[in-house]
Write a structure and sequence with these properties.
Two copies of one chain form a homodimer. By secondary structure, the first copy, chain A, is mostly beta strands. Chain A is 11% helix and 36% strand. In chain A, the strands form three sheets. In chain A, strands 2-1-6-5 form a four-stranded mixed sheet, covered by helices on one side. The A-B interface holds A 1-2, 14, 16, 18, 22-25, 27-28, 40, 70-77, 79, 81, 92-94, 96, 99-105, 107-109, 112 and B 1-2, 14, 16, 18, 22-25, 27-28, 40, 70-77, 79, 81, 92-94, 96, 99-105, 107, 109, 112.
Chain lengths: 125, 125
């Protein structure tokens, strides 16, 4: 297993998630060693959820898995770039394709694009 | 100034840096409040250097500034995506266009692309 530079025990490494075809940046999440190993071995993007403090297979609730097509690592081994296929088309829990749907212009936010799915339908509570 | 969610005093927010034309992800850096304000007001990507623990105008040494073309913010305001024009063509201190020039395949790294510049020439020490 390729060794990332986690720097300290328990440190997390950011993973940038990009659509493997369009290059659109979909989200950013964090990995611990376990998440990194799971991502590489299963081919399903797996993160460490900071809010829930546990391993998080992206799409485990919604079914919207991220299939890893290519893995890039940065010059100093402390950031990962995943090029993925997003099952279900949307990476954001809001239903938008990308988490980066807020565009800042002249101090104001414009929402780019419309939700692909209704979060209340997908995350039935 | 649009308020990012820094969560705690002194916390840093990751900024993903993407070529505004090609969509190539070039690097990831971190911002504190001062770096965020400088980026928005000057239009030159400005970060907080974790190794040097100070404000870092990208390109201040090499002349390879990053001109900000578009700013995106993620759903929960704790990550920034900058779409930029990279002056001098390379964002990485190694001379590569992207810091993400290490491709992981079957456990091994392949270097993608060749350096655009010679770091020893650009960062004269």
């Amino acid at each position: 297993m390729y060794k990332l530079n986690f720097k300290t025990d328990g440190a997390l490494i950011p993973a940038i998630v990009q659509d493997h075809k369009t290059g659109e940046v979909l989200m950013l999440a964090y990995m611990n060693q376990e998440a990194w190993e799971a991502t590489v071995t299963t081919g399903n993007a797996t993160y460490f959820s900071r809010s829930r403090q546990k391993l998080w297979v992206k799409g485990e609730t919604s079914g919207h898995l991220q299939r890893v097509k290519e893995i890039r690592i940065d010059c100093d081994d402390d950031t990962v770039l995943l090029k993925i296929e997003q099952i279900g088309d949307a990476a954001c829990h809001t239903g938008h394709r990308s988490c980066f749907h807020k565009k800042l212009e002249n101090g104001s936010i414009t929402i780019v694009g419309k939700p692909v799915f209704d979060p209340e339908e997908v995350y039935k509570t």
